[in-house]
Amino acid sequence: MIVYLNGAFLPPAKASISPLDRGFLFADGVYEVIPSYRGAFFLLDEHLERLRRSLGGIRMPEPQPDEGWTPMLEGLLQRNPGGDRSVYLQVSRGAAPRDHAFPAAAAPTVFAMVSPIVETRPDPGEAGIAAITLPDQRWGRCDIKSVALLANVLARQQAVESGAVEAILLRDGVVTEGAASNVFVVHGDTVSTPPLGHAILPGITRRFLLDALRDTGWDCREAPVTEEALRSADEIWITSSTRELVPVTSLDGRPVGGSRPCPAWRRALEIFRCARDRSMGIEDAGAIR
Ligand SMILES: Cc1ncc(COP(=O)(O)O)c(C=O)c1O
């Protein structure tokens, strides 16, 4: 494995970061997770745009010019050959004497590493995942992809300890998102997902799926999803860059909708993958996995 740190490609053991790094001391940084299929990034521009937005949200200048990101990320992918992979990219405000306020001068720390994309569903097409609901205890700017993920970590751990895979978070009686995913619910022919705002991450997969479904005539709504609407849904899906679109078939230990095969999810996944392959210029659509 080769990682990227501040301009160098090197083995993880040789990549050292100061203990005074503000990413370590304050979680003062932002990140992206960018999927790649057959060696090519999917929606890279969208991820870089969100990175710039997150940096703006924590008042950090971009650590390098726009055109520097793509060769760096592609260089990292080439040094880590394998199947479908995602790149984790993190930018922190860098090392400085510990003080909450921004340091007068600190060089940002830019770190990136590659991980395999692992299928969440043990048997794709058959098994959905279990989720639990939990109160959303995160801060008020969840639209910033911050590395401060302690509330997400605790929610995910609680899910795992309950035998589930994901925690779906509720705030003031409505769904916000998953601990590491966006949430969609299906009622009849209508697909709904919570609207953008400070309460959720503007998921790249969420946007791509909404566009792909709308292009094929689906009725998709970006509107508040109440707890009642979640519990009465025919289907629940979660989306993220490394998991794409996964059905939730058990919520708080109860079956969702009673329809194990999740017919809408099946069609939606096919539409998603066709749109993905088309956007990547891949001919034999659906053949990636
Ligand atoms: C809290 C949260 N919401 C939503 C998502 C999905 O975002 P994307 O589709 O851009 O991966 C993630 C991804 O990790 C996440 O951590």
Helix content: 25-40%
Main sheet properties? 9 strands, mixed
Q: Based on the structure given, which CATH architecture of the largest domain is correct?
A: Alpha-Beta Barrel
- Computed CA radius of gyration, to the nearest angstrom: 19 Å
Q: Bound small molecules, which ones?
A: pyridoxal-5'-phosphate
Distance between the termini: 23 Å
* Count of distinct structural domains: 2
The coarse silhouette is: globular
Number of strands: 15
Strand % is: 25-35%
Tell me the structural class.
Answer: alpha+beta
CATH superfamily of the largest domain: D-amino Acid Aminotransferase, subunit A, domain 2
The name of the CATH topology of the largest domain is D-amino Acid Aminotransferase, Chain A, domain 2
Description:
The chain has 289 residues and is α+β, with helices and mostly antiparallel strands. The protein folds into two domains: 3-116, Aminotransferase class 4, branched-chain amino acid transferase, N-terminal domain (D-amino Acid Aminotransferase, Chain A, domain 1, 2-Layer Sandwich), CATH 3.30.470.10; 129-279, D-amino Acid Aminotransferase, subunit A, domain 2 (D-amino Acid Aminotransferase, Chain A, domain 2, Alpha-Beta Barrel). It is 26% helix and 28% strand. It has seven helices and 15 strands. It has helices at residues 22-26, 44-57, 69-79, 150-161, 204-215, 227-231, 263-279, and strands at 3-5, 8-10, 29-37, 40-41, 85-92, 109-116, 129-135, 166-171, 174-178, 182-187, 190-193, 219-222, 235-240, 244-251, 254-255. The strands form two sheets. Strands 7, 8, 9, 10, 11, 12, 13, 14 and 15 form a nine-stranded mixed β-sheet that branches. It has a six-stranded antiparallel β-sheet with strand order 2-1-6-5-3-4. Strand 1 (3-5) and strand 2 form a beta hairpin. Helix 5 crosses helix 7. The longest helix has 17 residues, at 263-279. It is globular. The two termini are 23 Å apart. The model has no long low-confidence stretch (mean pLDDT 94). The structure holds pyridoxal-5'-phosphate.
